[in-house]
TrEMBL record:
Protein family per UniProt: Belongs to the CcmH/CycL/Ccl2/NrfF family.
GO BP annotation list: cytochrome complex assembly
A GO MF label: metal ion binding
Segments forming domain CcmH/CycL/Ccl2/NrfF N-terminal: 11-150
GO cellular component, one term: plasma membrane
Protein name: Cytochrome c-type biogenesis protein
Residues spanning the signal sequence: 1-22
Organism: Aquamicrobium defluvii
């Protein structure tokens, strides 16, 4: 009996979790097309409280205020870009989950490629580095001298 109850609760939790969103019913727009636009915009805006979560997924009060603001701007007739520009003008570019490519963010966008090229160059140059020269073989005279030294050393130890 307890196992069945636990299984039922687990199933409810698994199937209900995707439906759970931070957006409350009073925020939802009547027009499904406008609501879809609002969701799309909200998914690309960072919650300034949670920082690594979109305002669409965040339960923070500020995220709720931003969701309402997005919906108000959409209802006022703004395009998606106008809504995003308005939010960025108020909160800065940090509010964008995907930063724009401009003069201030070019380093951010180019850093992975620069690091990849630098790593490749390092590996290439390290593999081409001169290997130590092969050790020269002993001449017959050197080998005889070495053998004599080794024999002397062995006899002195015994």
């Amino acid at each position: 009996m307890i196992r069945r109850l636990a299984l039922a609760l687990l199933c409810i939790g698994l199937f209900a979790a995707p439906a759970a969103r931070a957006v409350t019913p009073d925020e939802v727009l009547d027009d499904p097309a406008l609501e879809q636009r609002a969701r799309g915009i909200s998914a690309g805006l960072r919650c300034l409280v949670c920082q690594n979560q979109s305002i669409d997924d965040s339960d923070a009060d500020l995220a709720r205020d931003l969701r309402v603001l997005v919906r108000e701007r959409i209802e006022a007739g703004d395009t998606d870009q106008q809504v995003i520009d308005f939010v960025v003008s108020r909160y800065g570019e940090f509010v964008l989950l995907k930063p724009r490519l401009n003069a201030r963010t070019v380093l951010l966008w180019s850093a992975p490629f620069v690091l990849l090229l630098a790593g490749g160059a390092f590996v290439f140059l390290a593999s081409r580095r001169k290997r130590p020269a092969e050790v020269a073989k002993l001449t017959d005279e050197e080998r005889a001298a070495l053998d004599e030294l080794l024999k002397r050393d062995q006899t002195s130890q015994h």
